[in-house]
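Slide 14.
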Amino acid sequence: MLTQMGTALRLWFGFTLLLGLAYPLGMTALSQWIFPAQANGSLVYQGERLVGSRLIGQPFTAPGYFWSRPSAVGYNGAGSGGSNLGPLNPELQQQIAARLALLAPTEGDASERPLWPVIAGSMGRMPVDLVTSSGSGRDPHLSPAATYYQVARVAKVRGLPVGQVEALVSQQIEVPPLGVLGAPVVNILLLNLALDELASDASLPARK
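Slide 15: predicted structure.
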């Protein structure tokens, strides 16, 4: 009996050290060595100022910036969640109508531009991810179609040529791994930071 208890205690102590201490410390050290940025949250800095993470979306409301995908949780970094509203739910229809009304008058001469690439499931020329929230509520990406849709408004407010802003969006498109694991996306935070570097008008209102 005592022999069995001694063996059990030694095993417990050994595995506690191995799996509860050595393994976590080893994996932490290895990740910090090989993938330091990812291990620390994929943080994004503007100079020395921390402005966000590549993995967590945030709201942009100023007309001179590209707007992010709507969030059902207010981009709460402490907890994710979707609206959980079905396609026939009147509340969802009201939310979409409000977002359409907000977007439609802000796109300036977008209707005069050639048709942007439109993803399947979009409503007319409006990419669906511009008016519906993601399942997590913290999606940092938009589809290229939803990003191109905003080019006319951003270019007009910034006083930049439309073609220059379009080219900036094209440079920011992230292709999926191996070209098949997902769809192309644009990280809105990184795009807006690049837009700030491109813009020559220093009198624009601060990002909100």
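Speaker note: The chain is about 40% helix and 10% strand.
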